[in-house]
Specification:
Radius of gyration: 18 Å
Distance between the termini: 8 Å
Oligomer: single chain
Number of strands: 11
Length: about 270
């Protein structure tokens, strides 16, 4: 049986701290930082039983912000370069390079499985959920964030089918499931939703999209975000000034009230 869990490392963070934390994690891509900040804000009082599996851990930057107060935490990542960075990050007890639909661990191994903006990138996402349920201990938690159908509907409504197809191709999005569908699909796998929250309201998403389009625009043969990334790597980006500037620019979009969510945080528990 999983323990009752501990809150995330975000629990005592103010909204301004959360936004700046997301910007520090993604200094060259403020569009991603804005999206990430809206997710971080939802996670402040969520508890994670240990041990934790970070499913689709990337380089470990998200877990560094969210799960720094937890141990042990293991990472799983399919992309070789990102898995290598995650392994060297010091965030994880171990990092496995594997497919999320075939987890190389024994059943009932983890108190929590965490998946941060990952499932929408997996063509067979429900197979990954099945595997997550398998490796959870009774009473364990699956905590994940995903975009909602409204995310796709807004792009299609504002810019048409071609724009949505282009966005999906560039971001690698395969699915936009409703909360009702998630409830049904999780129940089929022995998981029951105990908490759900929405984030990324319409105006915030439009700000994200404008910034995202700006950052992938090419200048001198390179994307704007690659110019910023290069400056950051060479330590030529004045970080205090940079963080202050983007914190001010993104504060209002970050703080907008969520009515029609463009994304979900879902917490589901495995039945005993």
């Amino acid at each position: 049986m999983a323990d009752s869990g501990f809150p995330t490392a975000l629990v005592a963070r103010s909204d301004r701290d959360v936004l700046r934390l997301a910007l520090r994690a993604h200094p060259h891509q403020p569009a991603v930082a804005l999206w990430r900040a809206t997710e971080f804000a939802m996670l402040r009082d969520i508890t994670f039983p240990t041990p934790v599996l970070d499913l689709g851990c990337g380089t470990g930057e998200v877990a560094r912000s969210v799960l720094r107060s937890h141990w042990p935490v293991d990472g799983l990542e399919l992309v070789a370069n990102e898995a290598r960075v995650a392994k060297a990050s010091g965030v994880y007890r171990a990092v496995m390079r594997a497919d999320g639909t075939r987890l190389p661990v024994a059943s009932a191994s983890y108190g929590a499985v965490y998946s941060h903006s990952v499932l929408e990138h997996i063509p067979s996402d429900l197979d990954a959920v099945t595997e997550a349920a398998r490796v959870l201990q009774p009473g364990g938690r699956l905590v994940f964030t995903v975009p909602a159908p409204a995310f796709a509907e807004r792009i299609e409504r504002d810019s048409g089918n071609a724009a949505l197809a282009s966005t999906n191709a560039r971001l690698g999005h395969y699915h936009y499931r409703s909360l009702e569908e998630w409830t049904e699909r999780l129940a089929e796998r022995g998981l029951t939703i105990v908490a759900s929250r929405g984030h990324l309201p319409a105006e915030t998403q439009r700000t994200w999209r404008r910034l995202d389009e700006l950052m992938v625009r090419r200048v001198g043969g390179r994307r704007v975000l690659d110019w910023f990334r290069g400056l950051h790597r060479r330590r030529l980006l004045p970080m205090p000034l940079w963080l202050g500037l983007w914190s001010a620019l993104l504060w209002r979009p970050f703080r907008r009230e969520v009515r029609d969510p463009g994304g979900y945080l879902i917490v589901a528990e495995r039945l005993a």
